[in-house]
Amino acid sequence: MSLKKTESTPIRYLWLFGPPAIVVLVLAQQFGEVPGNHLFTKVLQNALHIPWFAALTLVVWFILGPHRFVWVLVFVSAIGVGTEALQIVGPRDASLIDLELNPLGASIAALGIVLHRQYSGFRRKQFVGWVGVIGFLALVTLALPAYIQLSYQHRDRMFPPTPGNR
To answer: Which long-range contacts (CB under 8 A, 24 or more apart) does 116-125 make?
Structure first.
């Protein structure tokens, strides 16, 4: 069994490993939980939707191929709405904020895909582009919980909670 020159071995096996990867990602998102009951851990749980959907977008892009970019976004959006609908009846609470964070992660991955395609043939520029996208993804994911934590602290200083309303 010989490989075509245009088909590399890792891409060829994505059809075998891609769908289980999507199932694992969906199960991790539905049943995974950041330990702790503090505001920061709850917000971090929501913020993890950003890298999760970025990873999901990349997996689906590799499975469907580089020329089906619109279908990648349609499929990932359907998974985003579907997983939030499952959370209504599942162990977690559905959230409109999650519906906003899901496309943010997919958009950051889409930026990486666009840069990758723009600089095809320029490996170093592609590498620098992906490093920048991953750095931006990490920055947004980690900044969101810190921002919300600071916002709540500011709110509590401006409007101190009454006893029993905490």
So the answer is: 117/66
